[in-house]
Each structure stands twice: as structure tokens, then as C-alpha cells.
């Protein structure tokens, strides 16, 4: 739900302000790759109606955001292209290699799924780099990144709960480790987010 | 067989 909220916040910003200033297209494209490689089992592995609907929402909304940033006349003009310089392959290639080395089963779908877990952990980096370069971070963008970080942190709590409460729950070290790293990457952002919230000031990251 | 807790998350 926090993940869904983050997407709603981002779409709200882009749609109402007709601006994507401070939003990293690189991160959005990495997320698109994360969802495509993770949800390849959309039609073959039915978990629940909720699960299927959420997968479709995450996939379509991410491509919708990318369309807005690349294709929409007004939104496209507000994109900070010169500041959003992070290279995709810096993250994609190491994650691919890691997925080929560390996985639970050597099948195409499983390796791609593992790749998506690793890539998700670091997909926020271009956004955080761009954020540091952006002087005026608007509230919606700040809250968007907060929700995006919070959902993985909440997963950590959920994993602990499931580990103790569910009978047939198996340890999933790959997901846990990646989730911990993903949350740790946000630690610095969370610190400044709460600091500005407490002081009732605009969010600002130190250079 | 479906492994509980492996691919049932988003």
C-alpha cells in the first residue's frame, strides 16, 4: 500500500503540476526493468487476485510515468536531463552478474526474478543523486521518495512477522539481504526527511 | 509445488 501511495504521489505531481522536475527518468526505467523481470510469472503463478492486480498496477503505472516523462509535451520539457546522468549499466550489469552467481535455482525465470530483487535494491540511486543536485525539492517529490523507501522497510517487519507466525514459511535470504540493503540506502534520506519534517522546513539534502 | 513465502510477494 505504501508502494501504491508512492506511485499515486508521483502521478499526482506529474499530472497536476505537468512537471517532472526532480524526478529521475533513470530510476523509473530501472523500476520498469525490475517489474518486467519480476512479474514474468504474471500468468503462470497465480497467488491471489490482489497480487495479480497489484502487479498490473505497478507495471502499467511505471510505463505510464515513463511515457509522461518521455512523450508528454509539457512534462518532457521539465525533465532535468543534464542533472540525471546516472548510467543504467552501472547498476544493471553488476546485478545481472550477481543474479547469475547467487540464486536459488538456475532457471531463466528464477535468475531474472533474482536479478529484479537485486536491481530493485539499488534502483533508487539515480533518484537520490538527482535529489542531491536539486535545490528546490517539492513536497510531492519528497513524499514520493519517502513512501518508496518506506515500503521496503515495512517489508522487513512483515518478513519478521511471517518468519515467526507462518508454519510453512521458508527463509529467503536473497530477498532479506537485498531488502536490508535497499532500506539502508534510504537511511540518509530518511534522516533529512524527518529532520525537515520536525522543523517544518522544506526538504533539503546537503551537497 | 508452491513454496510458501518465496514468490508470493510483490
Automatic annotation (TrEMBL), chain A:
What is the annotated signal peptide range for this record? Answer: 1-22
Task: Say which domain of life the source belongs to.
Answer: Eukaryota
Please list the GO terms describing molecular function: ER retention sequence binding
Q: Which GO terms describe its biological process?
A: protein retention in ER lumen; protein transport; vesicle-mediated transport
Query: Per UniProt, what is the membrane topology?
Result: Multi-pass membrane protein
- Keywords for this protein: Endoplasmic reticulum, ER-Golgi transport, Membrane, Protein transport, Receptor, Signal, Transmembrane, Transmembrane helix, Transport
Q: Where in the cell is it found?
A: Endoplasmic reticulum membrane
Q: Which residues cross the membrane?
A: 46-68, 89-106, 112-131, 143-161, 173-194
Q: Which Pfam families match?
A: ER_lumen_recept
Q: Which GO terms describe its cellular component?
A: endoplasmic reticulum membrane
Tell me its family: Belongs to the ERD2 family.
- Could you identify this protein by its name? ER lumen protein-retaining receptor
Upper taxonomic lineage: Eukaryota, Viridiplantae, Streptophyta, Charophyceae, Charales
